[in-house]
Amino acid sequence: MIRVVLLLSLFIVFSPSFSQNEDSLEIRKIFDEALVEGHAYENLRSLCKDVGARLSGSPEAEKAVEWAKELLEGYQFDKVWLMPVSVPHWVRGDIEEAGVNGKAMSIKTLGGSVSSNGKIEAEIIEVQDFEELEKIGQENIEGKIVFFNRPMEKRLISTGEAYGGCVKQRWGGASNASKYGAVGVFVRSMSHHKDKHAHTGSMGYEEGVDKIPAVALSIQDAEMLSALLKEKPNSLGYIHVNSETLPDKQSYNVIAEIRGSQEPDKIITFGGHLDSWDVGEGAHDDGAGVVHSIEALRILKEIGYKPRYTLRCVLFMNEENGNNGGKTYAAVAKEKGEVHIAALESDAGGFVPRGFTIDGTEEQVMQMQSWQALLKPYRLHLFEKGWGGVDIGPLKEQNVPLIGLRPDDQRYFDHHHSDTDVFENVHKRELELGAASFAAMIYLVDKYGLDSSFNGEIILD
Amino acid sequence: MIRVVLLLSLFIVFSPSFSQNEDSLEIRKIFDEALVEGHAYENLRSLCKDVGARLSGSPEAEKAVEWAKELLEGYQFDKVWLMPVSVPHWVRGDIEEAGVNGKAMSIKTLGGSVSSNGKIEAEIIEVQDFEELEKIGQENIEGKIVFFNRPMEKRLISTGEAYGGCVKQRWGGASNASKYGAVGVFVRSMSHHKDKHAHTGSMGYEEGVDKIPAVALSIQDAEMLSALLKEKPNSLGYIHVNSETLPDKQSYNVIAEIRGSQEPDKIITFGGHLDSWDVGEGAHDDGAGVVHSIEALRILKEIGYKPRYTLRCVLFMNEENGNNGGKTYAAVAKEKGEVHIAALESDAGGFVPRGFTIDGTEEQVMQMQSWQALLKPYRLHLFEKGWGGVDIGPLKEQNVPLIGLRPDDQRYFDHHHSDTDVFENVHKRELELGAASFAAMIYLVDKYGLDSSFNGEIILD
Q1: pLDDT digits over A56-112, tens only?
Q2: What is the ipTM of this complex?
Q3: Residue B8, in any domain of the structure
Q4: In angstroms, rounded to a whole number, what is the distance separating the alpha carbons of residues B239 and B236?
Q5: Which of B1, B9, B165, B395 is deepest in the core (most CB within 10 A)?
Q6: Distance from A347 to chain B by nearest Cα, in Å?
Q7: Beta carbons of A19 and B5 less than 8 Å apart
Q8: What's the domain range around A211?
Q9: What is the pLDDT of residues A292-326, one digit of tens each?
Q10: Domain boundary among A242, A265, A300
Q11: Do A154 and B36 touch (CB under 8 A)?
């Protein structure tokens, strides 16, 4: 018999103080405003229904810029402006067909794919990953369509981690298959959800490879095809798509700010991305992040909070296929010598918020974790070192701590980049809770900072 | 300037040990089985589609008993049996109409309501609560239909708490209105979701009051009616329903167990309720709890776990309108002198699990909280003193600690007791994570107990 002394978890929490009470009250006001008088849901409805899908370079993306500028101006923040961003302009064609043995499958051309230049027809070879290509060898791949059928790993609790584990087959599948002489690529959609909707997303070509077309198959079609190939290995696949890449266009990041009352030259940036894929309505990806960000700034203004630092809401353009909005923002900040206290991003959907991850120093992680007790009543429990976000990522080289809002992710990839990423699949209260959580974190960062020299002491005025 | 020393949260966690590793591995196996080879989703599909809605006393409830018995027998647990339970038998009529100024509204007769005995037509008086009835007085209520329009409080993060805050108008609205001479009752559905589906649920009559019919209005209709009454206070409401209460019937709790390997006379009971309301398919309420419970027992068997105590899965009958299954189970346990280590319940939906609440002593709360580190990788964060469950509630007088699984509750009342509580509104992975979480908690309770004299020491064999 082994006797183990189990120490009960001891939490040494803040002793109640005036300051904590004040914070509790302010955060309660933030949630009340979001849940009772919130604008997030109606704003998302308008973005999804009045603007719709809005891929960089498209007329809808330009409409989204106008939509956002007008909305932000209506809230009478201290300043609203557009920051020019050069964006790629890929266009899905009016022909988008692929199938097997003459029977159509539910597909989406991957973003960035070349046209098939007429119909390609070829045998199909199924693989799980790039390593398998090498094992099979050129003689078994040349002239064929390669079918990457690696599913997202069900065992992983984080669907984001499961996505990360197989997204390279989408991004690099065409280049890797092309090296062995393949003529086209089928990629299983990145999703756990077995429906008929294929999921698009970005792909690219390595320099020097022959560019071959790449399409995503719905999960149902991927499973059907895999079963079919076991029975009939010589089945003939076909791809007929006429997507194309046009010259770059000019677009914009849309920015609004409330000027800091004490140190206006120091900035807290927070945002989501205004562009989306050209399917569905970009509701979770990233309409939710857009309205979370707008709502956070609106709420903080509405409750009369006077920020110490300048609060800047940035709606980034072109996260989906280039991240030029994020890169441009960071470059402009560097050029102007702007000082960022922190950057926050919401780009993980409009689902019920679970907490935040921070890409920063150990001290910054601890600083964020010191706020747990204030946010626990709102069922925010996850405060960990981790991912910030794509749009704010380029600020990292300026040593800006990056914070990502973490909504629950079980349903996120069901809709991601597919026809079902629509307003109706966003839940009102979940969206509102996300906006309030985002605003509460911005409030705390503004009030206490995330100084990398944080040593356990906070100076309150 | 005030200088506050903020102590960083210090967690004194278990030092890694063989035992913790063993627990981690076992819990990992539980989640793997649920997520990769799980039966919960298919079992729920079958319960919803092959059986359907199953109110106590209905033929479908009896079909559910057969369904569960057969399923449990198929898993070859040590023992499967039926425990007789006498249940009420209320039947919704084939006439179910209510409206205003001759225009139909979307309604559901509340469970337990009497028939209107033909069509009632009367002016409508809107109130928020019982106190308002007293203020308004008999002269303004007599002969009218009382419309209880108190919404669930949006500010509350817990929708369960918001539900708890206004459910008394559903349960007691008719009796309270009847005392002032009302002829019928409209009750705003208990939901945050503004759709056209009315939500039923149980109501009762106090002794001695005239029994008047009570119907729930959909949220859209409640809001329409409230607006209409501001414009046209003399609007005429009508109710025409012919529900009735028939003699009690005999039904069953369905029970399966795996016998304990060390102390088989001590029992850990866990379950959900097999009955549902007679609308929708009882998918979240409580098909989810039923399949969580079955799946937990199946998983623990499948991974080869040998429980110390007897693990007993109980599918209770009649939670919705009487709780006779729960009462009978506790009475039988008492009569037989059975010793229960703990009772666990899943009756809060099939949504992503957030943690557990425990209705027990402070020591039992701490014992449960001591397992947090093992469950955090599965995003279970909520370990608090709180509600166990309705079915297991009657065991409390035998001093059994009661544990409730806590799925996220933002969407629960959208579907609760309405036509939309169907299989399609349950998410596969969320359901599976719930089943695995339930199984993991059962495993930990079995391995370590919840002894009320728990003093920070655990004895491991």
Answers
A1: 999 999 999 999 999 999 999 999 999 999 999 999 999 999 999 999 999 999 999
A2: 0.93
A3: no
A4: 10
A5: B395
A6: 20
A7: no
A8: 93-242
A9: 999 999 999 999 999 999 999 999 999 999 999 99
A10: A242
A11: yes
